[in-house]
Amino acid sequence: MNRKLFIVFFLLILLGLTYGILSTLPDGKLHIIFCNVGQGDGAYIKNPNGTDMIIDGGPDNTILACLGRHMPFYDRTIDTVLLTHPQKDHMQGLISVVERYSVRHFVIGNEANTTEGYFNLISSLKKKGTPLHTLYAGDKFQMGSVDYDVIWPSMSWVRSHIEASSSSLNTLALRNGQVFGTATSNNFNDFSYVIHIRFNDFDTLFTGDGDEKIQPEIMRNVSIPSVEVLKFPHHGSKTGISKEFLEKLSPQFSVISVGKNSYGHPSKEAIDLLNSEHINYRRTDQHGDIEVVSDGEKWSYKTQK
């Protein structure tokens, strides 16, 4: 390669890198990407000030590809990761996230699974020295101009539903003498974090797998916000959401995070309910990554496919 061609080649690479960096700088908007992680949940959130967050990680390391598509290539830090509840289809991919990125804060419930995956996740977090936080209904935190409100579960509900043993107040999940959380035989779905995200006049609700079993409890104890965007609970299961809960939320748009499965997700009942309420929706299995963008007033979405 002669000198002129080398210079042109170098300048083209430099121009490409400069464009890549400039295009990923904070734009003052909230970006919520519902990642196509298969039969599970995984979302990446970029706040208007450039801080970021992951909610759930899917059943395998597929979420890493989603992060590669939507995070700046030079960014190896994630400010906050939140696990809605410790089941494989929400949890497993977070092991790879913790191992490959620097995570500043990790939000996790008090309930502990006794699977290998759960122990591996907690071991990775402890090895990295990542601060762990347990939140309850009424807890709030901010990431720049975006408010994150926990509306489920309440501390009293968690304490009353964690199983007790005769020898101690709680039964501890142990491995090699280390405490990994509090064991429970209750349905992990019921413990799912329900998170209200508010950016000025734009609202989103993340629901994990918290279905119609716990929704009456939420409605009794919390003023349900109306939202523009709803992450449909439990991958569109037939018990995912009650008509009353959906009407209180009155979303304009819903995302169903789902993949190939033997459960019949999303169910006919869920789709019929969304259609009867005239709610537009998209599915990750059909549309790939689904990105919602808002400036705090207006919002739009786009899909990968």
TrEMBL record:
Gene3D superfamilies attached to this UniProt entry: Ribonuclease Z/Hydroxyacylglutathione hydrolase-like
Matches recorded under CDD domains: ComA-like_MBL-fold
InterPro entries named among the record's database cross-references: ComA-like_MBL, Competence_DNA_uptake, RibonucZ/Hydroxyglut_hydro
Top-level taxon of the source organism: Bacteria
Name used for this protein in its record: Metallo-beta-lactamase domain-containing protein
Organism of this sequence: Candidatus Gottesmanbacteria bacterium RIFCSPHIGHO2_02_FULL_39_11
